[in-house]
Amino acid sequence: MSARVLLVSCARLPRGDGDEHAVPAALAAVGRGADWVVWDDESVDFAGAELVVLRSTWDYSARREEFLAWCASVPALRNPVDTVRWNTDKRYLTDLAGAGVAIVPTELVAPGVRPSWPEVPFVLKPAVGMGSIGAGRFAPDSVEEAARHLGELHRAGQTALLQPYQSTVDTEGETALVFLGGVYSHAFTKGPMLTGAETDGSGLFVAEQLGATQPDPASRALAEDVMDAAAGLLGLARHELLYARVDVLRADDGSAVLLELELTEPSLGFGQADPGAPLRFASAIRASLR
């Protein structure tokens, strides 16, 4: 499997989650072969690949240091290891806020720290995690329950993110804006996932309600600002970010705010995009080879 593009997943999803079924054919259409592989499969020649593209490596959060060490060992990794290291800890949100990006208000609660509980509904989630696993939504009169959840995160060695819950998510969900090679490609909506939703069959992420959308101008402008800020913080040109997903929501005051920036292994919503999206991804991969 040398001199090919490797699309990397995990053992429980060895050929991805199905969203990217059209990507290998799109790569073939631009003259590049592709194989699905598992990141911790020692039989794979990652060093001999043209490009190694992180996709659904969704078991990394329980093995982050091992995963990062593997990333550092792969010469042609996209996105690159320094980006992965920064982006797999949600404390990156405070870096983006410091760069002037409007984010959902976020308080970092390290182990041993007791927060001042908000007087509005709020969310607690681990700084290292994905797919909404470990995230909980609490009412202001549920502090004891929230404290137990925080204790569980702290006992696991996790710093927690404490954020006021934005009620617009219940009616509007989130808007995920996808960038390929630093250029906007498409967007899709994600429904609320903190109200008792169940995980998918793999147990790696909470099942989502997805739909196609056209983002409003405020969301587009914010997503572009996020991309510029992230590239600046990472010392990269935007085109060096092979893929990115910018998750935006409308805050209760009506403004667009960043919920998360996904630069490591995001689902890119090809199932909700126009038919040209996999070809745009293939073109971005081919350009990255240069």
The name of the CATH superfamily of the largest domain reads: ATP-grasp fold, B domain
The helix content, as a percent range, equals: 25-40%
What is the level-2 CATH architecture name of the largest domain?
2-Layer Sandwich
Gyration radius, in Å: 19 Å
Share in β-strands: 15-25%
- CATH topology of the largest domain: the name is D-amino Acid Aminotransferase, Chain A, domain 1
- The helix/strand series, from N terminus to C terminus, equals EHEEHEHHEEEHEHEEEHEEH
* Integer tally of domains: 3
N→C terminal distance: 20 Å
Number of helix segments? 8
Largest sheet: 5 strands, antiparallel
**Overall outline:** globular
The first-level CATH class name of the largest domain: Alpha Beta
Low-confidence stretches: none
Computed structural class: alpha+beta
- Lateral strand order in the biggest sheet: 11-10-9-12-13
Look at the structure and give the mean pLDDT. Answer: 93
Number of distinct beta strands: 13
